[in-house]
Design brief:
Helix content: 25-40%
CATH superfamily of the largest domain: Spore Coat Polysaccharide Biosynthesis Protein SpsA, Chain A
Radius of gyration: 23 Å
Shape: elongated
Number of domains: 2
Oligomer: single chain
Strand content: 25-35%
CATH topology of the largest domain: Spore Coat Polysaccharide Biosynthesis Protein SpsA, Chain A
Bound molecules: magnesium ion
Structural class: alpha/beta
């Protein structure tokens, strides 16, 4: 599978007309709103590239913005930019035109949903991997929904109703063919899945995410407010991890394969640096340790990429509204020499954590030939993280 993501940021944001700016361009945490979901998609290893669809005529300006952002916050994957159309389906169509030939599957996401989690993205991808041609995340409707026909009110059966979200995932050919089918303009195409439905194709529902709200009304912007730096309760986390050398897994540090290093014994991919970092983040959250969250007795976690474990930890951090302010990481080992790899590791960590270079420090040291690292029996990493928890504590108003 070769999966790309289209981020639709071409809307007019009419319901937020009181704002000076279109909602997708509002700045939150020093970045435009559309950048936040792009960041989350960029952390999902299966995603090969991104297409941003901006209002036609504004896309050159946004291209400059993205180039500027990329200098400090590189997405680490290919991206392309398209000009949107009049309606949502026209913008999706323009995005689809920009897909590279090798792309087999596509996720289409609303830029107005900046809080999408990597876990929800992965549920959509898993359904595609299992053969679904169209996938939509959705949540059961909790309110009673009534239908007004003329002056007559009827109640719809709630157990059959779902509020669908994005990203919606598609086999590329299925969505491209659906766009070619003549759809009467009177038919409501309010999402991409409905195009498949009109063509009689089945769309599979997967579990959505209550946090994945769509910024529609100005009060929705309140949900984003905890980004204000003055808010939040300070927290600190410390992590430490060790892996023994031996015939096991090729060494990885911070997600980067270290070809000059000895193999390590591990259940996952044995990335000692990411394990220490995960433990430090869990420390901030007061959520125990990596073994509690990802037990090494779980066969599903065998050989799993630690970058995936980090993503799930970051999903948890976002749920708890943890803002990471600074990370200081140290690798302690006699062998291999870390210096030649440091730049590459730091770059990857910045991409995984979506933080600025000034917020992350990476060090390496030896223990002067002493102890198990000195005797070249294993490798150690320690991590310290400070941040702020912005969710209201229990009992507060
Ligand atoms: Mg470990």
């Amino acid at each position: 599978m070769n999966i790309w993501t289209i981020i639709l940021a071409a809307g007019q944001g009419r319901r937020l007309a009181e704002l000076q700016e279109k909602k997708q361009f509002l700045t939150w945490r020093k970045r435009p709103l559309y950048w936040h979901s792009a960041r989350t998609f960029s952390r999902v290893p299966e995603i090969k590239g991104l297409i941003f669809v901006f209002p036609d005529g504004e896309h050159h300006l946004q291209e400059e913005t993205i180039q500027t952002l990329s200098r400090t916050d590189n997405l680490g994957l290919e991206y392309r930019i398209a000009g949107g159309g009049r309606e949502r389906r026209d913008s999706s169509f323009q995005g689809l035109q920009m897909l590279p030939r090798e792309c087999t599957h596509v996720l289409i996401h609303d830029a107005a949903r900046p809080l999408i989690s990597a876990a929800c993205i992965r549920r959509v991808i898993t359904a595609l991997e299992q053969g679904a041609r169209g996938v939509a995340p959705g949540l059961p409707v909790t309110e009673t929904i009534k239908q007004l026909s003329g002056s007559r009110l009827t109640t719809l059966p709630r157990e059959k109703l779902y509020a669908v979200q994005t990203p919606q995932g598609f086999e590329r050919r299925a969505i491209a063919d659906s766009h070619r089918m003549p759809v009467r303009r009177t038919e409501a195409v309010t999402d991409d899945a409905s195009l498949l439905e009109f063509c009689g194709l089945q769309v599979q529902l997967v579990e959505g995410d209550p946090e994945n709200i769509k910024i529609t009304h100005s009060k929705d912007l309140m949900c984003l407010r905890p980004s204000e730096p003055s808010l939040g309760r300070a927290c600190i986390g410390w992590g430490c991890d060790v892996h023994r050398f031996g015939r096991g897994k090729p060494m990885k540090l911070g997600g980067i394969p270290i070809s000059s290093g000895p193999e390590v014994l591990a259940h996952s991919d044995g990335d000692v640096l990411l394990h220490a970092l995960i433990d430090a983040i869990l420390g901030c959250l007061g959520q125990g340790d990596i073994g509690d969250l990802f037990p090494d007795t779980n066969p599903a976690l065998e050989n799993i990429s630690s970058a995936v474990l980090l993503q799930e930890t970051l999903d948890l951090a976002r749920e708890r509204q943890l803002i990471l302010d600074h990370c200081d990481l140290t690798v302690i080992t006699q062998t291999p020499k870390i210096t030649p790899w440091k730049k590459q590791i730091k770059k990857n960590l910045l991409s995984l954590l979506a933080c600025d270079p000034g917020q992350l420090n990476l060090k390496a040291t030896t223990e002067e030939g002493l102890g198990f690292t000195g005797e070249k029996k294993g490798i150690k990493a320690v991590a310290q993280v400070i941040g702020r928890i912005c969710e209201p504590s229990e009992g507060s108003i």
